[in-house]
Write a structure and sequence with these properties.
The protein is about 40% helix and about 10% strand. The chain has about 325 residues and is an alpha/beta fold. It has a single domain, classed as Rossmann fold (3-Layer(aba) Sandwich), CATH 3.40.50.970. Strand 5 and strand 6 form a beta hairpin. It binds thiamine diphosphate and magnesium ion.
C-alpha cells in the first residue's frame, strides 16, 4: 500500500473545511439560495477515501457531497458557482448544491435521493468490467441510507457479480434529526456481510486511518476481489442543512458536539504537519478561496428563457408561443 501523504491530506481537509465555511457565508448573504448541507466535521472521510483513487475511478456522491467533489478533483470555483446557481457551474447552475455531477472529474452524480447510489454504482461497475476496464467505483452515502431497500438491492448485485465497488457509509449519527440508534436495526456492517461483502467499521475522523482502510478496499476491487463496505464513524458539527440556522432544532446536546470537537479531523491531521508548512498551506487555501468565491459571485445567473435547455439530449425547447 502507498503511504498517505500527510501534507496533502491536511491541505485537502483544510480546503474542504474553509470551502464549506465560505459556502455557509454565501447562504447567509443570499448568493446561494438553496442552502447547503455542510460536511464540516466529516472532511477526513472525503480526503482520505478519494486520495486512494485514480483519475479514471468513478465517484457517486450524496446530498452532503461538496467534500467528495473537491477531493475527487472537481474545479472548486466551478463547484461553488454551481452551488450559487451560476452558468459557469459544473452543471451550468442546474444541479446546485444538491444534484451536481462532473464527468470531467468522473463524479457521475450526487443526488438528494437517499440510498440511490448503491444500485447505480453496481451498474457502472458492471459496465466497466464488461468493457475490460480496471475502474473502481466509490459510492458515498449516509447512515440514513441503510434503512432504504434500494441500498440492499445494490449490495446484492455487487456481491453476486463480484463488482469493483467500494461502498462508504458516513455514519454521522443522525439522519436529519433522527439518531441512528433509533432508526437502524442490527448493524451497518451486518448489511454488507449479509451479501458476502467484506465490511468493517473505521475511525472516520482520522484521514490516515481512512486512507489505509480504503486503500485495501480499492486494491481488492481493482484486482478482481469484489466489493467492500466501510462504515466511517464521523460527526457533522453544523446542522443537517443551513435551514437549521433559522429553525434552531434541538435534537442533540451541546456536550455531544463538544466531545466530537475534541476529535476534529482538521486538528488530528494538523498534528502531523510542521507549523510553518501549515501556516503556508492555510494562507494559500485562503487566497485560492478568495478567487473561488469571486469567480462564483461574479458569474452570471442563467437566463430564464433557457430553463429547459440541457434537459433532453435532443435539445427539447418549449413550444413556440409558450412563454416561461
Ligand atoms: C429516499 C429519500 N427519503 C427521504 C429523504 C429526505 N432526506 C433528505 S436528507 C435525509 C437524511 C439523510 O441522512 P443520512 O443518510 O444519514 O445523511 P446525512 O444527512 O447525515 O449526511 C432525509 C431523510 C430523501 N431525500 N430521500
Ligand atoms: Mg447521517
Amino acid at each position: 500500500m502507498t503511504a498517505p501523504d500527510s501534507v496533502a491530506l491536511y491541505r485537502m481537509i483544510r480546503f474542504i473545511r474553509r470551502f464549506e465555511e465560505r459556502s455557509v457565508d454565501l447562504v447567509k448573504s443570499g448568493e446561494i439560495v438553496s442552502g447547503v448541507h455542510p460536511c464540516i466535521g466529516q472532511e477526513a472521510v472525503s480526503a482520505g477515501a478519494c486520495a486512494t483513487l485514480e483519475p479514471d475511478d468513478i465517484v457517486l456522491s450524496s446530498h452532503r457531497g461538496h467534500g467528495h467533489l473537491l477531493a475527487k478533483g472537481c474545479d472548486p470555483a466551478r463547484v461553488m458557482a454551481e452551488m450559487a446557481g451560476r452558468v459557469t457551474g459544473i452543471d451550468k447552475g442546474r444541479g446546485g448544491s444538491f444534484h451536481p455531477s462532473d464527468f470531467s472529474a468522473n463524479v457521475y452524480n450526487a443526488t438528494g435521493t437517499v440510498g440511490h447510489g448503491s444500485g447505480i454504482a453496481a451498474g457502472i461497475a458492471w459496465a466497466a468490467v464488461k468493457a475490460g476496464k480496471s475502474t473502481v467505483v466509490m459510492s458515498f452515502f449516509g447512515d440514513g441510507a441503510v434503512t432504504q431497500g434500494a441500498l440492499l438491492e445494490g449490495f446484492n448485485l455487487a456481491g453476486l457479480w463480484n463488482l469493483p465497488v467500494v461502498y462508504i457509509c458516513e455514519n454521522n449519527g443522525y439522519a436529519t434529526t433522527l439518531p441512528v440508534q433509533t432508526a437502524v436495526s442490527g448493524t451497518i456492517t451486518g448489511r454488507g456481510e449479509a451479501f458476502g461483502i467484506p465490511s468493517s467499521t473505521v475511525d472516520g475522523q482520522d484521514a490516515e486511518t481512512v486512507f489505509a482502510a480504503v486503500s485495501e478496499a480499492v486494491e481488492r476491487a481493482r484486482s478482481g476481489g469484489g466489493p467492500s463496505l466501510l462504515e466511517m464513524r464521523t460527526y457533522r458539527y453544523h446542522g443537517h442543512h443551513t435551514f437549521e440556522l433559522k429553525t434552531r432544532l434541538k435534537y442533540r446536546e451541546q456536550a455531544e458536539i463538544d466531545e466530537w470537537r475534541l476529535r476534529d479531523p482538521l486538528d488530528i491531521q494538523a498534528a502531523r504537519v510542521a507549523a510553518d508548512v501549515r501556516a503556508r498551506i492555510d494562507d494559500e487555501v485562503e487566497r485560492e478561496l478568495d478567487e473561488v468565491v469571486r469567480f462564483a459571485v461574479e458569474s452570471p445567473r442563467p437566463d430564464p428563457a433557457d430553463a429547459t435547455d440541457h434537459m433532453y439530449a435532443d435539445g427539447f425547447r418549449p413550444r413556440a408561443g409558450v412563454s416561461l
